[in-house]
């Protein structure tokens, strides 16, 4: 599958998950956990004749106009696609599958399930170097004109939305929303870390040459070779070190077991890898 098409497919899946979490758990429970969706919920509460879907469409258009005017062409097609896809899905859910009351009566359950599903979806979207727009645009504007860090700017934007929610839905729901913002951040970071997790492997084997050849020719990965001296044997031996994904490591491990059952293998997880063959900033 074409890499670009695959990326947009993942963005679509992520946007759908975000919409499900918001539409079926957070919105019916009046849990405005920040973001442009929370702002749309507040507008809907103040002006019931304006649906959440319509409010999202108008807010997204306004924010993108502000973004283009103040920041310029800093918004990629993926962000525009994700933003309006999410808005469209929520509009469809809001129009054709409206919920008069939450699926479950327990606010904590609605908060946990809603934030979990939408947080996973946002993590998937962010992992494709995209965002769902909304308060991300506000954060970038604050960053440009007031030199406030992006993370803090996003927190400020969400804090303002949740504070407004306190006046619309009451202080209790606002407190739940604050918790939602916190847990949402943790979930997003965990999802992104899971996608980007790599394996660092060091192999001490008498079949060093064969292992190097397998890594380079069959896994299409690089390797670094060290010469180490054993404390017990007092002999020198080559250590093969390489970084790869989990599927590649399973293949390598099975190969090494086949050619040298006595090979000494050390494995560790790597949260992020930058450079040739991996992501670059």
From TrEMBL:
Transmembrane segments: 7-27, 47-69, 81-101, 107-126
Pfam families membership: DUF2179 (PF10035), YitT_membrane (PF02588)
UniProt membrane topology term: Multi-pass membrane protein
CDD domains the record matches: YitT_C
Recorded superkingdom: Bacteria
Keyword DNA-binding: no
Cell location: Cell membrane
Keyword flag GTP-binding: no
Gene3D superfamilies given in the database record: 3.30.70.120
Keywords: Cell membrane, Membrane, Transmembrane, Transmembrane helix
Domain DUF2179: 221-275
Name under which the protein is recorded: Uncharacterized membrane-anchored protein YitT (DUF2179 family)
Lineage, highest ranks first: Bacteria, Bacillati, Bacillota, Clostridia, Eubacteriales
């Amino acid at each position: 599958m074409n890499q670009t098409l695959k990326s947009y497919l993942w963005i679509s899946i992520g946007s759908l998950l975000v919409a499900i979490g918001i539409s079926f758990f957070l919105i019916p429970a009046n849990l405005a956990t920040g973001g442009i969706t929370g702002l749309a919920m507040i507008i809907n509460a103040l002006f019931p004749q304006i649906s959440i879907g319509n409010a999202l469409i108008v807010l997204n258009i306004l924010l993108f106009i502000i973004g283009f005017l103040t920041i310029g062409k800093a918004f990629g097609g993926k962000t525009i696609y994700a933003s309006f896809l999410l808005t469209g899905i929520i509009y469809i859910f809001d129009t054709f599958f409206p919920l008069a009351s939450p699926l479950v009566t327990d606010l904590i359950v609605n908060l946990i399930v809603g934030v979990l599903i939408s947080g996973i979806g946002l993590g998937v979207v962010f992992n494709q170097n995209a965002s769902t727009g909304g308060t991300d645009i506000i954060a970038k504007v604050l960053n440009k004109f007031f030199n406030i860090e992006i993370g803090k700017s996003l927190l400020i934007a969400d804090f303002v939305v949740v504070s407004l929610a306190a006046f619309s839905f009451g202080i209790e729901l606002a407190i739940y929303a604050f918790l939602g913002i916190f847990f949402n951040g943790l979930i997003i970071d965990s999802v992104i870390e899971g996608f980007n997790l790599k394996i660092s492997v060091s192999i001490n084997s008498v079949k060093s040459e064969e292992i190097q050849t397998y890594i380079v020719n069959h896994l299409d990965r690089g390797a670094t070779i060290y010469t180490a001296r054993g404390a017990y044997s007092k002999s020198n031996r080559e250590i093969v070190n390489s970084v790869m994904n989990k599927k590649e490591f399973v293949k390598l491990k099975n190969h090494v077991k086949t050619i040298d059952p006595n090979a000494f293998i050390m494995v560790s997880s790597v949260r992020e890898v930058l450079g040739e063959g991996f992501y670059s900033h």
